[in-house]
Design brief:
Blueprint lengths: L2 H23 L7 H8 L3 H7 L3 H21 L7 H11 L1 H9 L4 H13 L1 H26 L8 H22 L5 H13 L1 H6 L9
Length: 210
Amino acid sequence: MNLRERKKRRTRDALLRAALELFVTRGYEETTVDDIAAAVDVSQRTFFRYFAGKEETAFYVPRLAETQVVEAVRARPPGEAPLEALRRAVLESWDTINETIEEIVPVELHMRVYRVIESTPALLAAHLRRSAELEEELARIIAEREGLDVDTDPRPRIIVALFGGVIRVTERLWSAGDDLTLEGMRQLTASYLDQVGPALAGNWRTDQSP
């Protein structure tokens, strides 16, 4: 990376960090592009050289993490069952994701932005739209791994929808809790994914009378 590229990356990361800090302290809706640019002492025009808008700054780091998960799923051994491949891809890529985040913004700041996303209707709607797109991408990867046609066999979409539902429940409960660490989210994710099999196979009734 040459000097010019390093300077561009520093500016991008500074804008990103300023945006996230403003979202956490002031609120997403209350923060403008001008506010973000002013915090870094650059022009609005400079901001738009790096980001299409403030929404992109909110999701920049999560999108990097999603890309790593997708690649991790692609790299899983072909003999693994689909749900296990998804589970291991998420949990085993956690350290790499952590390193990627730390290269750009503090992990704690990134995790606090999750609360902002969950509590901001516009961001939550964008997050759910992207989650649906990500599920479709993963379903096609799983179908390809299993030698299936995703458009005629519903199983890849069903298993990915199940997996995505677990992740959404985890995100919601984690963001409402007191532990905002990445490790806390990882442990909660692992716990919920481990319960999928028993939940599907077990009898949930506590009253066993006929």
